[in-house]
Amino acid sequence: MSGIGRAGAVVAAGTLVSRVTGLVRNIVLAAALGTVGAGAADAFTLATQLPNNIYAIISSGLLAGVIVPQIIQAAKHRDGGSAFVSTLLTLGVIALAVTTALAVIAAPLLVIAYGDKLAPETQALALAFAYWCLPQLLFYGLYALLGEILNARRVFGPFAWSPIINNVVSIAGFLVFIWMFGVREDAAGWTPTMVAIMGGTATLGIVFQALVLLLFWRRAGLRVRPDFRWRGIGLRHIGRLAGWTFLMVVVGQIAGLIQTNIVGSASSSGPSIAVLSYAWLVFMLPFSVIVLSIGTPYFTRLSEHVSANRPDALRADLDSATRTIGIFMVGALAAIVAAIVPISRVFTKTPDAAQAFAWVLAAYLVALLPLSFQFVLQRTFYAHQDTRTPFFFTLAQAVLVVVTALIAAAILPLEHLAVGIALGQSLANVVQLALAVILLRRKIGPLGLGGAVRAVVRFVVAGIPAAAVGWLVFALLGGSAGWVAGGYLGALFGGAVIGLATLVVYVILLALLRAPELTTAVRTVRRILGR
User: Fold this and answer.
1) Which residues lie below 8 Å from residue 330, measured CB to CB, with a gap of 6+?
2) DSSP 234
3) How far is 321 from 330, CA to CA, in rounded Å?
4) Mind telling me which residue stretches traverse the membrane in this protein (predicted)?
């Protein structure tokens, strides 16, 4: 377990720094292009989502779900898995290059598919950005492929730390844009130079993020060379497993396309594509820092337990991962809820826009805990090399996402459309968690999570009054009419004060409830700070 703790600390420390710098990146980007009612922001967000959506699904599905267990199995070979990884990388790079080329050719169709309801000038700007941003797909895929190979070889740090380089490059480029051209919220009047600076900056950061992983390749202990001999190493088996994750990619893309297309109609009226994206990034901040950093080392352990036929050890780690993730995520949820208005003000120009942003973020937060716990369950399926079952509960989730988005479009005014779509996404994630629990029980029997469920209830009992205290601090600082919502610096400082107050009360209440998980959480935080 100490190995899990050390690995989790390395990943969490890198993820924390990368997410903090990523937060700064997005604040600078919001300052350059705006958010609520900003056509330029919607166009840039749509263009960057095209490669990003595919990467997000591949990295959490095909690579994590199929490749990691296969590499662990291949490590038992005489060469330690070098031949398998060589073939995998060769095939992966070729496939990524072909896919990227096809995506660039299809850029006009992709922009129309995602942004059909955008104004003509916003569509045109999105297409110009897309030509600069779609090559990111190759480097996103390369980053995910190299990173998961390193993770499978227990080299966890570089994958978590390398995004910092991307954020630094992006911050510098966006600041140069502001210095040269000022704030550009309108989609009209953009020159090729302006498009090149924004789009080129975004892509250059991803290039550096991927290539820096090569500097750490020696730690994996693998000798890799181009290898086109693809027969006889189990690619057919991988193909069967990956077939289901490919279907998940298709299902997820269709759901995301419909969401983006529908909310695009609100681009000039209120929260739209950019606000959904920024709110999702804030929502994913604790998920990325906590769930991914804790879950990544656990996933390697779960795969090893399955490979060695140790079901009791698997259930023990499943329980431990749920408890550890739960104690952190409930605290993070309480802090974000208490400071939601100042957090939203950081990404918006006015207090009224902050209120609109906050409602979208609140709708997403409904699913923060369910999505966190579902991550562990899904990785347990992947550890069993079962990608078929996750496809079905992901399909159910995607259907609900589409249905709720269509309902929102039919009954809500444009200024509230983004809130309805975000809430539908959250409700779909809750249903997805319930299905994942039922199907995993059918697969491996009792999950042994009774103690973990009781622990999460304790965390929630502590989190609710902690959030109330944080909200009281927000009110004492003037609330929405006070300095904590009056400008960027006040929002940043006020949000930090409110969040810290919430977390202090949360920890005190956990201590009074004698939650045994608090000791593990404190030890984990010390490791992260030490790193």
Assistant:
1) 369, 456, 459, 460, 462, 463, 506
2) S
3) 14
4) 54-72, 84-112, 124-146, 158-182, 194-217, 238-258, 278-300, 321-344, 356-377, 389-411, 417-440, 452-477, 489-513
